[in-house]
Structures are given as structure tokens and as C-alpha cells.
Amino acid sequence: MKSILFVCLGNICRSPIAEGVARRLIEQEGNGITVDSAGTGSWHIGEAPCRHSIIVARNNGVDISSLRARQVHKNDFQKFDLIVALDQSNYNDLQAMGAKNLVKLGEFGCGGADVPDPYFFDGFEGFDRVFAMIESCVAQLLSERG
Ligand code: 4NP
After folding, report:
1. Percent of the chain at pLDDT above 70?
2. Angle at CA 145, nearest 5°, toward 58 and 108?
3. 84 and 7 in contact (C-beta within 8 Å)?
4. I need a surface site. Which of 3, 28, 45, 62 has the fewest CB within 10 A?
5. Are 14 and 117 in contact (CB under 8 A)?
6. How far is the CA of 9 from the centre of ligand 1 (A)?
7. 92-146 per-position pLDDT tens digit
8. What's the gap in Å between 145 CA and the centre of ligand 1?
9. Residue owning the nearest CA to atom 7 of ligand 1
10. Do 38 and 4 meet the contact criterion of CB atoms below 8 Å apart?
11. How large is the C-alpha radius of gyration of the chain?
12. Listing from the earlier edge strand, what are the strands of the sheet with 3-8?
């Protein structure tokens, strides 16, 4: 597999973490896989990741501060070998747009669970749990499919 696109709703909380974690693992492996992330929604196009995602990533040695949100486009389904939805709602939206090469991140070691949407979390609490889940599923994904 040469390229992976991670997709959540806003592309400011969860999928930038997945992109940052994957990028770091890919650099360590040196396998040359390309990664990117996007959102199904358009509200946050051009914005940096949310503050708490930047902080939790930084606490874990991953700098995602320079990423900028974009909206997923049908062309992405041709450009990327694998489209990875962060939750079932993202999965359903991507399927409705015509994505075929589609999986859900939680299928990789988390029993198919959704990565919880932290956008409406109260403060920082919960972001550690979201980061840990994303990190473990992304590692599993890359070892199975990378
Ligand atoms: P994300 O979180 O999908 O993990 O980036 C969200 C970001 C923004 C919104 C919802 C979820 N929003 O409704 O604007």
C-alpha cells in the first residue's frame, strides 16, 4: 500500500492526530507510504488542528501544529489506496460519496469501535484516551496493511 487518507468530520480533532501518528511511524519504518487527512464537513477548511489535539500530540512527541483542515473530495478515492474513517458516521458518509477502498480505524485492534468525537468534550479530558486509541489502531493498521 502506497497511500492512506484518514477522514473524520471536521479534520481538526481526530484525523490530524491519526495523520501525525501515521507519519511518525512511516518515517521510522522508512516504507515511503504517503499519508494525509481530511474532513467530510466544510466548516473548518484551512484551520489548524484544535488546541487540545495539538497539545495531546505534542505531549506524545508528535507535532501536528502545521496541518491545515481540508474537505474530502471524490478524487481522493482514486488518489489514495486506502480511505480510513474515524467513526461509523464518517464511514457511512464516505460510502455514500462512492468510496470503495474504505475501512474504519477501529477495525484494527479495537473491535470495530468508533473513535469518539472529542469536539464537544469538556476541556482536555478525554483527549488522552482518544490519542491512545488512535495510536494503537494506526500502529495495527500499518502492521497489517503497510
Ligand atoms: P473531528 O471533530 O471530526 O474529530 O475533527 C469535529 C470537529 C468539528 C465539528 C465536529 C467534530 N463541528 O461540528 O464543527
Report:
1. 100
2. 65
3. yes
4. 28
5. yes
6. 5
7. 999 999 999 999 999 999 999 999 999 988 889 899 999 999 999 999 999 999 8
8. 27
9. 10
10. no
11. 14
12. 34-39, 3-8, 82-85, 102-104
Q: Is 17 in the pocket of ligand 1 (CB under 6 A)?
A: no
User: Per-domain residue ranges for the chain?
Assistant: 3-145
DSSP H or E segment with residue 34? strand 34-39
**CB atoms < 10 A from the CB of 120, how many?**
8
- CB of 117 within 6 A of ligand 1: the answer is yes
Q: Return the CATH fold of 3-145.
A: Rossmann fold (3.40.50)
Residue carrying C-alpha cell 491519526 = 18
Q: Report, as an integer, the average pLDDT of 31-52.
A: 97
**3: β partners:** 34
Residue type, 52: H
Mind telling me the catalytic residues? Answer: 8, 14, 117
From 14, 146, 11, select the one nearest 76 (Cα to Cα): 11
Query: pTM of the predicted model, to two decimals?
Result: 0.98
Per-position b or e across 124-134, b if 16+ CB within 10 A of its CB: eeebeebbebb
